[in-house]
Amino acid sequence: MPPPEPGGKQDAASYQRHFHRRWNHLQDRHVRTLAWLLDAPDLLDANAAAWQGKVATLGPVDAATAAWLAELDAAPEALHAALPSGPFTRLGRYAESLMAFYLAWQGRLIAHGVQVRGEKNETVGEFDFIVRDGAEAVHWEFATKLYLLETCGKGRHADYFVGPNLADTLGAKVRKIMQRQLALSSHPNAINHLPEPVHRAQALVKGWLFYQGGTPDTIIPEGIGHCHCRGFWNVLDGLDDLASLRYVILPRLQWLAPGKFRENETCGLDELRGTIRAHFGGNTMPVLVSVLETDGGRDGWLLETDRGFIVPDDWSRRAAAMG
Question: Are 173 and 221 in contact (CB under 8 A)?
């Protein structure tokens, strides 16, 4: 997928098309999500001078990894057993479990989820991953995030990208990672919890950014990858602008990989509108919608071509107040 020119437009569906070309043969939802984690462009540009080498990248998926994913798709039981269960599993914990499974298969995983405690047994922090890089041990802070560009931002700064639940911003998250979480290995108590000394610390960040009505002409903030996965956001009345026949409201643990569904799992526009209106009757959390079309074959699958958050009418006002 070629990167767009800085400040230029990118077709919102371009990453979905790329993903389906490479990974449409995968059937298991968790394997598809793992494929997305390995394949998706990084949210932070590893080559940006702003990060001073503190951004990790996985690089292209090689043939051996692609073959392993296909084998895993045919027999996914070991992966399923390694995943957290329960209705309230956090998206970040789910993604970490998938990444840990991959790193263990690679033989690079030294440790995962190592907590550091202080003198009074208080939690100082946690190492997401300690991974092998040649002869060195490296701390990876791993995050999967989705943010919406609120309307007054126009891409001027990462703080204008706001989480759907209004709990944080892209700018605040990156500062937390770079200034605090990556410094954990220098804490005097860290050495007591690490299996071996850490030589450096980096952030590995995947995710999606969403723009009102689609991808506008905008200036991407410094350090954000120009090739990032992207979608739209709109209020409920904006559903009329969607040009498709079938849709799915994505559960939180399906927010990462482009969707693949049977028709009986989908709904039409009127049903979608009614479901979202009922949701907003007692909930202010935006709803992530997958826009679908048939894959053109005879197997009955519908594939995601675009995605976007439908937000309450007052979401933009509340998001702007965070700035």
Answer: no
Q: Which domain holds residue 188?
A: 14-320
Residue 260, domain member (yes or no): yes
Does this model's pTM top 0.70? My answer is yes
Q: Residue 316: which residues within 8 A CB-CB, separation 6 or more?
A: 150, 151, 212
CA dihedral angle for residue 172, residue 176, residue 177, residue 182, rounded to 10 degrees: 160
Residue 197: is it exposed, middle or buried by C-beta count within 10 angstroms (0-12/13-18/19+)? exposed
Question: Under 8 Å CB-to-CB from 33, ≥6 apart: which residues?
Answer: 94, 95, 98, 254, 256, 257
Tally of domains in the chain: 1
Residue 154 has pLDDT above 70, yes or no: no
171-183: per-residue pLDDT in tens? 999 999 999 999 9
Distance CA 206, CA 203 (A): 10
Question: Residue 213 falls within a domain, yes or no?
Answer: yes
